[in-house]
Design brief:
The complex is a heterodimer of chains A (201) and B (195).
Chain A: H1 3-39, H2 41-64, H3 68-87, E1 93-95, E2 98-100, E3 105-107, H4 115-127, H5 132-163, H6 168-195
Antiparallel strand pairs in A: 1-2, 2-3
Helix pairs in contact in A: 2-4, 3-5, 4-5, 4-6, 5-6
Chain B: H1 4-28, H2 30-44, E1 50-54, E2 57-64, E3 67-74, H3 75-78, H4 82-91, H5 97-126, H6 140-147, H7 149-169, H8 176-193
Antiparallel strand pairs in B: 1-2, 2-3
Helix pairs in contact in B: 1-4, 2-5, 4-5, 4-7, 5-6, 5-7
Classes of the chains: A mainly alpha (201), B mainly alpha (195).
Amino acid sequence: MGKASRRKRDRVFKNDNQQTKQVSALSRMIKRWKLFLARNKMIVRSCAIFMFTVGTFVLVFSWLVETDTLFALLSFTAHSAAFVLNLFGGNVEVSGSVLASDRCALNIVNECTAIIPMMILLCAIVAYPSRFNHKLLGLVLGLPLLFLLNLIRVVSLFYVSTYFKNYMDTAHLLIWQPLMILAVIAIWLIWASKVGYVRKT
Amino acid sequence: MFAKRKLIVFLSTVAFLIIVLAVVWSQLMVPEYNRVLAATTESIDFSGVTFANEGDSITIQSMHGSNLIVLEIDGLSIQYGLVILLALIMATPKLRIYKRSKLIGLAFTSMFVLHILALLVMGRLAQTITPDHPSISDNPAYVFFISMGVDLFPILIGTALLLKHWLRVFKSSPSIDTEMAHHYRSETAIMESIP
């Protein structure tokens, strides 16, 4: 065999070797992913269900924004808060979604209702692998709890807005918003610890 | 699965830290963080939208035809998630200082990137505002990144970073009653196996 043909043979062999290495690296990566998915099927399934439910909620919510349905929820939240405030002697009136007294007025917007924390909790409970009646129990107990907590939030923010106006933004955005997030995490953790998970065989 | 007492102590600590960190953050960090956020977003956006920090708020300006659209975002509302993540990481027990610092760095970096994304989304949506359709709050991108994102992203990042550690730390130890029941069952099984 001549030198040129030997060089050509070596070059072809080198290219083949590199291609083989790339193909085997790719197949190793695919095998690793398949093994990961097989070992963590439940987690992957739960994450997929969670993302699907979140996506569905985002679409439904964006359709409902500025419709009568969502306005009814805003109005209901405002009326509930006014009821509680008037129980404690506040002279509060409701006009649509606006809470007003002699000293201040608060407009209840979409983010001031508990609908978003409630939907996140719903998505998390639906995604977690557990029995249907456990999921139902979690939703029946958890969703009203979040609504109640939100009511406390609106009432307290009304008082802050009336007597400590300078701290309104801090209380609204830096204290109560994280506390609502903490409530969602806490309710889900406590529920998940009580029900355990169902392994589908 | 979880030790009730440990969980309650943890949640109370987080709630306390949220209040403390909120006051400290609002007094010290808000204007500087907004300045860095607006400057970073301005430097990476090439669509003609301008992001400017004005006091405690961020202003987004864009041209739509011959109309100048100006959106003003309250500074605190765009800084979502930082206080809760910091409180969760600081309150989680049995974390070494190095690991804790690493988690804080990861949490802050993730939230900073998400805040930039939120501003970029707002910038894009500002360009779609017309006199016939002046609202952007019904756009799915706005709902996902802003309305829902302020609650969802901190929850996702917090649980992604800390859930495995929480499962280890808050796992309840077997109680005396269950140990006795286990011992009784073992004794009964041994007795029954003897012919």
